[in-house]
Amino acid sequence: MAEGDPGRVVEAVWRMESARIVGALARMVHDVGVAEELAQDAVLLALEQWPRTGVPDNPGGWLMLTAKHRAIDLVRRNTRYAQKLAEAGRDAEDRVRSAEDEVNEALDDPIGDDVLRLLFVACHPVLPAEGRLALTLRLLGGLTTREIARAFLVPEPTVGQRISRAKRTLTEHRVPIELPPPAELPARLASVLEVVYLIFNEGYSATGGDDWMRPSLCEEALRLGRVLAGLMPDEPEVQGLVALMEIQASRIGARTGPGGEPVLLLDQDRSLWDRLLIRRGLEALARAEALGTLGPYGLQAAIAACHARAVVAEDTDWERIAALYRVLAHVAPSPVVELNRAVAVGLAYGPARGLEIVDALLDERALRDYPQFPAVRGDLLARLGRHDEAREEFRRAAALTRNEREQALFLARAAAQETC
Fold first, then answer.
1. Which pLDDT tens digit goes with each residue over 74-98?
2. Which residues make Cβ contacts (< 8 Å) with residue 179, sequence separation at least 6?
3. How many Cα atoms are found within 13 Å in the side-chain-facing hemisphere of 145?
4. Domains of the chain
5. What tens digit of pLDDT does each residue of 22-39 get?
6. Which residues does the UniProt record annotate as the domain RNA polymerase sigma-70 region (predicted)?
7. Which residues, other chains included, contact 14 with Cβ-Cβ below 8 Å and sequence gap of 6+?
8. How many CB atoms lie within 10 A of CB 230?
């Protein structure tokens, strides 16, 4: 028997094995919601039995086998019901044997197609973004509803409703538990990558609350990205996203001061950056480049690599970053990309050039409530010596953000303009 507190072991095993178990069961019963219920039944049984019998040597295999037997019982019950409706008995029995064979295959596959199928189903475009986020964290991350709610600062019942609606939508639309056909793969993969990166970004720069970051979400997104890269090693954008997250995650230890206050990129102590994550990110970027032309995530990773390679902020190759942003604006145009390009241009060629780009975005509705827009404009104005205008921009940024740490940062920058 394995050692450890049974309750903690169950929680840890569920976090590690939930995707594989639910994915295998979903392939059997063709319903994500039912598959998760069966898996949860196995977890409850473990919580009842393991304190008495001890933790088994292979706790993940125990959960899988227990859930498998419950799934086969369910298939048999449905088969008997179908038989009563005059289905052929031989065909029905074949369905049971097929279900048994599928889970037996899953037991021999530590992480494989079942996890990939589940990820594509959880990120299906038929679901709204918030449903995809919640369902992915629930099914692929093994997070509880309470943990997801705490991470995104929304009420627990709201998250529960999103998950329930997402499962119901998948059932109502009869979304198959399978990988998309080749013709649909690029669009569907884009949805998966978007969800993973949204999870990472919410951890890296929290949109609300009193914490600048939520590193646990970054870790979860990184785990999902690494799994995806292992399952789809020949997809350049998968490698690009992993590279981007690895490099950005390397800065987490330097992004806050002793009191939890934000520390901006150019002010960070780069000796605190995680060199292992940087090396992993650069290796993933090299794999993406070897696979073909860089896409949006790969280009952002290349930009992040410019920062990672600079030993001190003054060594940053801002001209290369500005050029990469120009390419990114061509490949994936958006007002936010243009805003970031303005920052790079301002540092490469002077604040006046950067301000020209920002001012061309003044009428962009997508940036109207985006706190980074007045913050960037304020920074450029401050560098031009236009401190009264800069102060007002930083105040506007503070009014727009829902993150308390970020609000304090913007207000401090506004106050600093009064002494210039």
1. 877 766 544 544 444 445 455 545 5
2. 113, 116, 117, 120, 185
3. 11
4. 1-110 (no CATH), 111-210 (1.10.10.10)
5. 888 888 888 888 888 998
6. 20-80
7. 43, 63, 142
8. 14
